[in-house]
Amino acid sequence: MDVFKLLDAYSLRARLFPAIIAAAPALAALALLISWKSFGLSNLVATLGLLVLLFAIADLSRSRGKAIEGKLYAEHGGMPSISMFRRNDTTLDAGSKDRYREFLAGKLGVAVPTVHEENTDHGAADAFYGQCGNWLRQNTRDTKKFSILFSENVTYGFRRNLLGVKMLALCLNVIIVVLCAFILWRTSWAIVTPMGNKITVVLVVAAAHAAYMLLAVSHTAVWDAAKAYGRELILSTEAFLTPAKPARKTASRKAASAATTITPPGP
Predict the structure, then answer these.
(1) Is 261 contained in some domain?
(2) Total domain count for the chain?
(3) Is the pTM of the predicted complex or chain greater than 0.85?
(4) Once rounded to an integer, what is the mean pLDDT over residues 220-243?
(5) pLDDT at 248 over 60
(6) How many CB atoms lie within 10 A of CB 23?
(7) pLDDT of residue 183
């Protein structure tokens, strides 16, 4: 059974991929330093250990990512899908947000907070905007119809979860580098040997991995993705406001219509 078929698109791209990236040096070491010419007990143990490691890292990345998410919201004044709905936020134009508020208020069966109410009771206004976000998330689960929104959600989940295991990934990186250095030392630094060549590849992977984790994985990258998803979530309201286009006539119906047309007699 293909293990990837057991995972939905979000779990695969936003949870499993961060785990694979976090464990990249360890994966490279297992692939290169263990002989795979014959499948023996050591290969079985390595394969099972790899699967367990990836599952554990994926689970940790999600829990740590959620913890980071809460801190980001607190630092930046709330969830983007809430803060962007506020009247003092200029990410989206005021006219569109007014239409979205009225539509969502009708769906929720509540009144839209007035400007005065929003300015005097931020908590109540944000609670309303939070309900709007919840309604939109529940009604935009069609990943084909809302493909852009889904893509932004995956990007945010990927960055958030990868940031959650950043320190773990760097620690694994250090362990692999130390292990490779020890092997080279035990073999008198025989870099030109087949094993030395494999270890060199692992060290290159470790160096590239460390550079990526240190430079690309950051709170800023996660927050940028969160804002992109929050903006697209609010804009998805437009899909519910736009009336459905009437179905076009099919070619067969057009042909049938033409066949029944009475042609006037010739001169």
Answers:
(1) no
(2) 1
(3) no
(4) 94
(5) no
(6) 25
(7) 79
HEC letters along the chain: CCHHHHCCHHHHHHHHHHHHHHCHHHHHHHHHHCCCCCCCHHHHHHHHHHHHHHHHHHHHHHHHHHHHHHHHHHHCCCCHHHHCCCCCCCCCCHHHHHHHHHHHHHHHCCCCCCHHHHHHCHHHHHHHHHHHHHHHHHHCCCCCCCHHHHHHHHHHHHHHHHHHCHHHHHHHHHHHHHHHHHHHHHCCCCCCCHHHHHHHHHHHHHHHHHHHHHHCCCHHHHHHHHHHHHHHHHHCCHHHHCCCCCCCCCHHHHHHHHHCCCCCCCC
**Residue 67 lies inside a defined structural domain of this protein:** yes
> For the residues 208-220, what does the mean pLDDT come to?
95
Domain containing 134: what range? 3-242
- Domain-located, residue 193: yes
Q: Locate 231 and state its tokens.
A: 């903006």
The answer to whether residue 257 sits within a structural domain is no
